[in-house]
Design brief:
heterodimer, A: mainly alpha, 70% helix, B: Arp2/3 complex 21 kDa subunit ARPC3, 72% helix
Chain lengths: 261, 206
Amino acid sequence: MVFVLAEPAVAPPGFLAAGIARIDPRFRVAAVLAFALVVSQLDSFAALGLALAAGLALLLASGQPARPVLKRMAAMDGFILFMLVLLPFTTPGTPLFTLWGFGASREGMRDALDILLTANAVVLMVLLLPGTLEPVTLGHALGRLGVPAALVNLLLFTVRYITVLESEYQRMRQAMRARAFSARTNLHTLVSLGYLVGMMLVRAQERSERVLQAMKCRGFTGALPLIDTMRWRRADTAWALGFAALLAALVALEVAHGVGP
Amino acid sequence: MHIVDGALSAPVLVSGAVLTAGGITLGLRQMTLERIPAAGVLSASFFVASLIHVAVGPSSVHLILNGLCGLILGWTAFPALFVALVLQAVFFGFGGITVLGVNTLNIALPAVLMGLALRPLIARAGPRLAALWGAIGGAGAIALTTVFVAGALVFSGEAFVPAAKLVFFAHIPVMAIEAVISAAAVVLIKRVKPDLFAAPSAALPA
């Protein structure tokens, strides 16, 4: 089980790449929200194509290895494949071709392609902008953007303990292997995994009691101070303007080429 | 069962976001100072549990365990599952951004409903009966989630009806798996640390 949350972002070489790596975390979160809102409402292939192309350009410019990012995109496509394959056959409209007696419609193909492009454009931008942040920085950025402190605390705690509990899980799986457990498709496997999950929850609860006591000792009053040095720089203003231009171009293309509702 | 950006209509997205905001607010209200660490650490353990894959013949499915999550966290399951979905969307690319509200609602509301209905019963039950309630909670939450996912799709377009039906039937093995796992987990927790279910209302033991 490869775990990605703990990997710190390494600053890539190159002027443009270094610039991208330094983009303000708050801007990354806000930009991706705006991007997702705009792109999810687009219908024209020209606009959707530009959205996806912008993501690919950012991927190339960021200098990070493209393969893992594209792999994650492909994994998401795998999830929605069944839905996209069904759509052409279930949408009424102009017949395009028939397969085993089922007719695929032009409108259905169009909708499926629309969803595919939208989903990939957004996921790519998500993985590139906030996705390269460290999880703790994401929490801080959300806090700075006005997400309620309680929710930010919960996110920070979750992020902090995912790696701890992940290694606890691996230890318990190893102990099960040492007792000759091997996972199969049978009731015994499921019951054993259920006991494993139950034990993880019991241990998590006991750990949280120790954590609470330790934090109270240190004067925990319910608020985690967000210690960071997020500073808005001139480059961030430039990025924001560029991104606004991209969104404006998307809307303009939609208006020019879009199909009416 | 993550729905992606672009598939749902705007009214469905907005309703999902509004209802999820309400659920998160209710959940956070119950998360007092004493319960922040417990909620965070339990939320992390459900995140890790969702990375466990179970073989189903030649294929495999990952655990969701939203039923068990609701049984233990009550309303706090709402913010906990939201956090898990945010992390999965941002770092793994599962799901999307505008659909976060709908996706959270689909997975957290069944969790909370199972928690409200079954948690008091489990607190009073013996091991056998607790296993039964655990199984119902585990399978019921998945069943409701698939119904909600199907609903979100169908409300967005008639053309999704076959896909929505497929979602439900494809998850019947998942319901069975989650039933057994949740039942076993509930039995173990009842034996080892019954206070996880004993606290009144949907509260976490402080």
